[in-house]
Amino acid sequence: MVGIIEVAQRAGVSTATVSRALNGKSHVSARARERVLKAAQELGYVASSSAYTLATGRSRNIGVVLPFIDRWFFSAVLEGIVSSLVMRGYDITLYSLSGGAGHRERVFDDLVLRKRVDGVLTVALKLSDRELEKLTALKKPIVGIGGPIPGARSLSIDDEGAGRLATQHLISLGHTEIGMIAGNPASEMDFHQPYLRKTGYQEALLDANLDFKPQWMAEADFTVAGGYHAAKQMLGDPRHNPTAIFCASDEMGFGAIQAARDLGLRVPQDISVIGLDGHPLGVFYGLSTINQKTREQGEQGANWIVDILESGDERELANIEQLDTWPIDLEVRSSTAKRAREE
User: Fold this and answer.
1) Any idea where the HTH lacI-type domain is (predicted)?
2) Could you give the domains of the chain?
């Protein structure tokens, strides 16, 4: 059986360099890593995960916990996480909490008591004090994506600022009658994204001395169908339909564009629409959006937790409260334009 010594001899490096290269350590030159990987492939060498675990007490496995898997935002974040962890030589144990509160308790007890993972990545979940205490006591670092976690590291966009920026874009185009399709109570997550995005919308109107009218506000789930139904009702009433709509998600925006077209309205000549996400189908729909670079959030979160584990500093394994604000970009496409002058 081929071992690490044979790989080192073929690559012309030390066994320590082979170990670092195959384990995804950063202290290896690109040239040396390439030689090691090529030698391992030529010799058919496969590293022993059990030997690594016995030597280090770690499994090179990250637990990823999400509330859902079958929604675009979560699948896009997960894609970024998987991509980065695989490149860094880590396995993934995936947990979905769609089964409810009892399911969540079993998941975190399983994570902690069986000690199957080296660290935990959460997506749009605020950990309870009990969950955080258990993981911290076992030196399991946590990185959250999607909102601030008291007592742990996390990265998140400024949802309120994103709602404000989307609305300010419409105001800059001369729109004064601006509606919003916000998330409904059923879509409320641990970090209250629907509420925060709506607050940003209202603050932008207030700053511009514009009226906020209840009839220009609708609620829906974060889906194409939800956005379609809400926009159809809002735009179908000629007594108070707006000239622009901010949708709290891109999928809502797709539905709003289709509803406007079904009502005989032209986008953007008769109605401007902007979303929030950076969904890849936004290019097809020509949807202006606030791009939160969802996949890249997953990549950053995964790299962050691996860097903590591989820092070589035991103090880094302790969970500390740290929030990194993730940047957002305004991407203007064909769904928004200057308000048409009234005849």
Assistant:
1) 2-56
2) 4-47 (1.10.260.40), 59-157+294-310 (3.40.50.2300), 159-291 (3.40.50.2300)
Query: In 3D, which of 121, 108, 194 has the Cα closest to residue 154?
Result: 121
pTM of the shown model: 0.82
* One-letter amino acid for residue 6 of the chain: E
Distance CA 178, CA 270 (A): 13
Q: What DSSP character marks residue 249?
A: S
Residue 49 pLDDT greater than 80, yes or no: no
Residue pointed to by tokens 């040396």: 32
Question: For the segment 284-324, what is each residue's pLDDT rounded down to a tens digit?
Answer: 999 999 999 999 999 999 999 999 998 877 787 889 999 99
**In the structure encoding, which two tokens stand for residue 45, read together?**
């060498």
Query: Taking a C-beta distance cutoff of 8 angstroms, is the pair 131, 108 a contact?
Result: yes
* Segment 231-276, tens digit of pLDDT: 999 999 887 789 999 999 999 999 999 999 999 999 999 999 999 9
The residues that bridge with 153 in the sheet, in sequence order, are 143, 322
Contacts of residue 133, Cβ cutoff 8 Å, sequence gap at least 6? none
Task: List % helix, strand, coil for the chain (3-state, nearest 5).
Answer: 45, 15, 35
Judged by DSSP in three states, 288 sits in strand
